[in-house]
Amino acid sequence: MIDTYILAAIIVSALVTWIPRIFPYILVRFAKLPDKVVQFLGYLPITIIFALILSSIFTVEVGSLPRLNWLETIAVLPTFLVISKSKNVMLAVVTGIICIAFLRLVF
């Protein structure tokens, strides 16, 4: 059986995760965003993919400088090309996954 405390924690965690993801969609349905905000939001896909990539191409250990991962760095090039041309995060992520899988298979 599941404990009521664990069930409550799961439900509260789901709400805390769900509300920030769904609330903006509800807000935008009933209010029109200013053009500056829409223009700013257009930069989010490239920002998100850059943050994901930057965290994966460097290995950080306490007490030493960050180390560059070469395979991931090579896979970044086609990923950046795809995200800059299409602005489609999902397509860029799939491109990155395929590139790194191919590079790991070869090397």
Task: Summarize the helices and strands and which ones pair or pack.
Layout: H1 4-30, H2 35-41, H3 44-57, E1 58-59, E2 67-68, H4 70-86, H5 89-106
Helix pairs in contact: 3-4, 4-5
Task: Describe the structure in your own words.
- This protein has 107 residues and is mainly alpha-helical.
- It has two domains: 1-31; 34-106, no CATH class.
- It is built from five helices and two strands.
- The chain has helices spanning 4-30, 35-41, 44-57, 70-86, 89-106; strands at 58-59, 67-68.
- A two-stranded antiparallel ribbon has the order 1-2.
- A hairpin with a 7-residue loop joins β1 (58-59) and β2.
- α3 (44-57) packs antiparallel against α4 and α4 runs antiparallel to α5.
- The longest helix has 27 residues, at 4-30.
- The mean pLDDT is 88.
- This is Branched-chain amino acid transport protein.
- It comes from Streptococcus henryi.
- Pfam families: AzlD (PF05437).
- The chain crosses the membrane at residues 6-28, 40-60, 89-106.
- Keywords: Membrane, Transmembrane, Transmembrane helix.
State the oligomer: single chain
**C-alpha Rg (nearest Å):** 19 Å
Tally of separate domains: 2
State mean pLDDT (0 to 100 scale).
88
Number of DSSP strands? 2
Judging from the principal axes of the Cα atoms, what is the shape? extended
Going by helix content, strand content and strand pairing, the class is: mainly alpha
Q: Percent of residues in beta strands?
A: under 5%
Biggest pleated sheet: 2 strands, antiparallel
> What is the share of helical residues?
over 70%
Number of helices: 5
Strand order of the largest sheet: 1-2
Low-confidence stretches: none
Secondary-structure element order, N to C: HHHEEHH
Distance between the termini: 48 Å
Protein name: Branched-chain amino acid transport protein
Transmembrane segments: 6-28, 40-60, 89-106
InterPro entries: Brnchd-chn_aa_trnsp_AzlD (IPR008407)
Keywords: Membrane, Transmembrane, Transmembrane helix
